[in-house]
Amino acid sequence: MAEIRIGHGFDIHPLTPGRDLIIGGVRIEYERGLEGHSDADVLLHAIADALLGAAGLPDIGQHFPPTNPKYQDADSSVLLREVWRMIRRAGFTSIINIDAIIMAEEPMMNPHIAAMKKRIAEVLTITEKQVGIKATTCEKLGPVGRGEGIAASVVCLLSTDE
User: Fold this and answer.
1) H helices within the chain, ranges in order?
2) Are 101 and 144 in contact (CB under 8 A)?
3) Quick one: angle between helices 113-124 and 42-54, nearest 10?
4) What contacts 159, CB < 8 A, 6 or more positions away?
5) N or C: which end of the chain has fewer CB within 10 A?
6) Among residues 126, 144, 127, 125, which one has the least CA distance to residue 136?
7) How confident is the model over 146-161, as pLDDT tens digits?
8) What is the spatial distance between Cα 146 and Cα 103, in angstroms, rounded to a whole number?
9) How many other C-beta atoms can be found within 10 angstroms of the C-beta atom of residue 106?
10) pLDDT band at 15 (very low <50, low <70, confident <90, very high)
11) How many CB atoms lie within 10 A of CB 93?
């Protein structure tokens, strides 16, 4: 009998000048980027944590700690690919689906969602139909609403049976 597990991931990073803005593995033209030890891709980090949580494994910070210089400016697509390897080693054979929400006042995310879905599907070797991404503002509330950062929340469903 197949084992099916749900996972939830969340990430938030502050916006800062002088960095590229990379979300969902896609570079987005904007005057600021996200601050973090790696490329600070909030969407891929939230996906990684959702997958790890569903498999009952420690979070992304445990596997790729910000104290390790090896991960300085790391491409989060590479880290997510490694997370998928960990998930498979833990006995999970398929990602049924991923559903994500990106929270940002600026820039507009909708023009980039198709490219994000394509990139995530490539990294995880799943179909674009298995990746849902929505974008919303925070109606000027909180740090995201004030334009201080960008956040992402993700749920996923894993299975031990293809």
Assistant:
1) 42-54, 60-63, 76-89, 113-124, 142-145
2) no
3) 40
4) 2, 3, 4, 5, 92, 93, 94, 95, 96
5) N
6) 144
7) 999 999 999 999 999 7
8) 12
9) 12
10) very high
11) 13
* pTM for this model (two decimals): 0.95
| β-bridge pairing 4-17 and 32-34 | antiparallel
Residue labelled with tokens 């049976």: 161
Please name the residue that has the structure tokens 């597990």: 5
Please, are residues 146 and 2 in contact by the beta-carbon 8 Å criterion? no
Amino acid identity, position 36: G
Residues 40, 44: Cα–Cα separation, whole Å: 9
Cross-strand partners of 8: 155
Q: Which H/E stretch holds residue 10?
A: strand 4-17
CA dist., res. 84 & res. 100, Å (int) = 17
Tokens of 99: 């559903």
- Residue 84 main-chain phi, psi, to 5 deg: -60, -35
Q: Which fold has domain 4-159?
A: 60s Ribosomal Protein L30; Chain: A; (3.30.1330)
Write out the two tokens for 77.
Answer: 């697509």
Express each pLDDT in 21-41 by its tens digit: 999 999 999 999 999 989 999
